[in-house]
């Protein structure tokens, strides 16, 4: 049985296919519009929440910073930039800036290196390392309020756990008024912060260490590199993107620190542990000087924004360029 194939004129060589019909073009336009409307429908709720809960309060805080306002009614007593002038003449706020810088330096010099050392240790094949990882990460899961109450009891003068332990081993002289002594309060507060947050950075470093190919370390070992040389020349450069993110989060956290300080010391004694956020809360919700508190919030936002942009521009640029290149290569 034979069959005869009659080629369609549209498929013959040298014959161009007919242009798409008007119905086909309208169908494509309709599908494109449907996709656009679907994307908008999913984004509108998030955009509305961002507008109402983030953008509008920020703009209103900037507006209120130019008024003498107690928080009731609408701001009406315009004073220009007097709140900002007062801000940088206020010894309490200038002390807040100094304490913020101190916490940043201590975090970068002590907390993060300690977290990195623990991450390197727990990345080895140790018995029970999963338990130790959970143990060290556990404090980060606790809320700052619980942490503050816990260490308020531990460092209570005379009958606190810290003083009892020191007394039991014959070091009574090292105890005392941990949070109540102006000369000790920042060191004690930093100790609490380290206990609370180092586990988070440790887990970041662990994730970065586990992403490093073992073949590179083995090759360095074959070449005769010792443990320090392998860490310095192989591990540390490959861990650099994770380190940069960790530093960024640590600095931003120090700038915005509030709840842990508020629960433990409320900024005392005599403002010696106060941070910018605590000062803002004191003036805004305790003294009802909301205009001045708004100026503090604007300065906090400005410091965070300038640091974030500068850090992204000069430190994270290589990481961001690498991610962009990878995404473009994957898209191809």
Automatic annotation (TrEMBL):
Question: Where does the record say this protein resides?
Answer: Cell membrane
Gene3D superfamilies per record: MetI-like
Give the record's membrane topology. Answer: Multi-pass membrane protein
Q: What GO cellular component entries does it have?
A: plasma membrane
Main site of residence?
membrane
A Pfam match is BPD_transp_1
Q: Where is this region: Disordered?
A: 1-25
Arranged from A to Z, the UniProt key words for this protein are: Cell membrane, Membrane, Transmembrane, Transmembrane helix, Transport
Question: Any transmembrane segments, and where?
Answer: 33-66, 101-122, 134-156, 185-207, 238-258, 290-311
Q: Which residues form the ABC transmembrane type-1 domain?
A: 97-311
Gene Ontology terms: biological process: transmembrane transport
> Which family does the record claim for this protein?
Belongs to the binding-protein-dependent transport system permease family.
Q: What is this protein called?
A: Sugar ABC transporter permease
